[in-house]
Design a protein that fits this description.
Radius of gyration: 20 Å
Number of strands: 11
Structural class: alpha/beta
Helix content: 40-55%
Distance between the termini: 45 Å
Number of helices: 11
Strand order of the largest sheet: 2-1-3-4-5-9
Length: 319
């Protein structure tokens, strides 16, 4: 608790999906000075704006969670934007942090940085053993460049920067927009809307054969807080649950949990994305004692309950 009391902390995207939970956990840890910059006030794609943020906030610890991100469809539609925005936001923030003499820079990477055919479970040493899956490679490579930058700055300037690689996140407050959401919120929404409309079938992307690993958002927030306090090394660290599930089995779980009883039509003209995803999380346990604690079905239940309440509230507001 005392670690955070007298340290001003800045959290980019601190009102977003993951960031809102990180901010809540910082407050619970007695952090008294938390600055959450808004993109309209600080456009981190501009170097001068990043420098202004550090002058205004004067953080000891900077937690960089801001990202332009989406599911497979969004990645395919915006490869240039996803590369440029994520690279420039990160590069400018790290450089401004160095110039300001930051105590610690905490950077959230992405599992999309791993090579397309990484052996399962993904180990951090595998990050450079091939090119990422094509549909999200621009995003994944942009984020991976921040690992290079942090390691280079540590070597040349002695800057303390750490890089965490979370697997696919899910949970309350996620993005449920079908045009840009990731797989779990998209399937939850399709199932609930299919149930409400008594639709005989719903359509799912791909073949269902790809596998994914999912980490509940509050577990990810816990990991970031613990790593920010305890981890001091240049090597990247995976954050995951260590449990792999196929998209087909995932949809079966969501159908059961939402009560949707119709059939599923798999649209094989849509891409599956990376064939498999499952992380080796032993480094996180060994280096700073973190392990995921939320069972997948429990996390799924909480996510569905939150979205049902949110959708009902939004419907009421429109009425």
């Amino acid at each position: 608790m005392t670690f955070w009391q007298n340290r001003p902390v800045t959290v980019t995207d601190g009102k977003g999906f993951l960031g809102s939970f990180v901010v809540e956990k910082l407050r619970a840890a007695s952090c008294r000075e938390i600055f959450v910059p808004r993109s309209r006030d600080y456009d981190l794609r501009e170097k001068s704006q990043a420098e202004k943020l550090f002058r205004d906030a004067k953080p000891d610890i900077f937690i960089h969670l801001a990202a332009v991100v989406g599911g497979i469809g969004a990645n395919r539609s915006n490869p240039g934007k996803f590369f440029y925005d994520n690279a420039t936001m990160g590069i400018n923030s790290v450089e401004a942090a160095r110039a300001a003499g930051i105590e610690k820079f905490v950077c959230a990477g992405t599992i999309c940085s791993y090579p397309k055919f990484t052996p399962v479970p993904f180990r951090e040493d595998d990050l450079w053993n091939g090119y990422p899956e094509e549909t999200n490679a621009p995003y994944g490579l942009a984020k991976k460049m921040l690992l290079v930058q942090l390691q280079a700055y540590r070597q040349q300037y002695g800057m303390n920067g750490i890089y965490l690689t979370p697997v696919n996140l899910y949970g309350p407050r996620d993005n449920f927009d079908l045009e840009s959401s990731h797989v779990i919120p998209a399937l939850i929404r399709k199932c609930l809307e299919g149930k409400s409309a008594r639709a005989p079938e719903i359509v799912a992307w791909g073949t269902g054969s790809a596998t994914r690993e999912f980490l509940y958002v509050e577990d990810a927030a816990d990991a970031i807080i613990v790593a920010a306090e305890k981890y001091e090394k240049p090597e990247p660290v995976n954050l995951g649950s260590g449990q792999e599930i196929s998209i087909r089995d995932l949809l079966e779980e969501i159908c059961k949990a939402t009560g949707y009883s119709g059939s599923v039509r798999w649209d094989a003209t849509k891409p599956d994305g990376q064939p498999r995803r499952c992380l080796d999380t032993t480094r996180a346990a060994a280096e700073f004692g973190w392990r995921a604690t939320t069972a997948f079905r429990e996390g799924l239940r909480k996510t569905i309950a939150w979205y049902e309440e949110y959708a009902q509230s939004a419907s009421g507001a429109r009425a």
